Amino acid sequence: MADTTDPAAQLATAIVVGVREHADPEYVAGTVEARRPGKAVLGVRIPLLRGAVRSALRQAVPPRTAADPELIRAAAEILWHGEAHEDELAACMLLRLSDVPPTAELLASWAPLLDNWLSVDELGAVLGLAVQAGYLDVADLLFLAADGSPWQRRLYLVALITPIRFGLDPVLVPDLAAVLSDPAPPVRKAAIWLITNVIRVRPGAVVQLRAVLPGPDPKPLIRLLDKAMTVVPAGA
Q: InterPro entries in the record, alphabetically (predicted)?
């Protein structure tokens, strides 16, 4: 990554340098298990990766000053298209740590490159916060639900966890039943994650989720929901 006078490139470069200081060849194997072959994997543990992003961000944004969204998104764009898997994760962390929401255009640009658990889940958390805060609409995510890649369909579910957990009625979410019923392993695991996470915080949502899946299938999810319905507090 070239060092230039462009502030976004400087921020991205500082993050890249910081991330690579924590590269651990002995940790690479565990990281690779979470993604399919593609970009290089450095083996940086998540807390150290987050710390490198936070350190570079402190240098780029003065204390008690709101980050410039254009600067942050431009730097995140550079990182997302970086050479290493950890650069993708750093791009998502940069958005989250700076409280800069992604745009629908940024999502459309990034989503086709998704190919692994960690990047999907980091980006999904950022999207969920953006939807919950009103910066994005569920409609902005809808293209993910019908995508041919299971990673993008997983991203749809992961991005919905926070909004549904804090009050979004799942009955109103387009194509949710179809994606919850998706048998692809990355999507199926996200469906279980969504249900368990939501009903732990908002037990009454189990009734809404059961309305999304009114039939007997998919059996693992229905068993999970029906068991949870037996312990829903009165009036929840």
A: ARM-type_fold, DNA_alkylation
16-31 exposure pattern, b = at least 16 Cβ within 10 A, e = fewer: bebbeebbeeebbeeb
Q: d(Cα 88, Cα 118) in Å, to the nearest integer?
A: 9
Q: What is the CATH number of domain 1-100?
A: 1.25.10.90
Give domain limits for the chain.
Answer: 1-100, 104-236
Q: List per-residue pLDDT tens for the chain, 236 residues long.
A: 455 689 999 999 999 999 999 999 888 876 665 555 568 899 999 999 999 999 999 999 988 889 999 999 999 999 999 999 999 999 999 999 999 999 999 999 999 988 888 899 999 999 999 999 999 999 999 999 999 999 999 999 999 999 999 999 999 999 999 999 999 999 999 999 999 999 999 999 999 999 999 999 999 999 999 999 887 665 55
CA distance 186 to 14: 33
Following DSSP, what letter does each residue of 88-124 receive, concatenated? HHHHHHHHHHTT-PPPHHHHHHHGGG--BHHHHHHHH
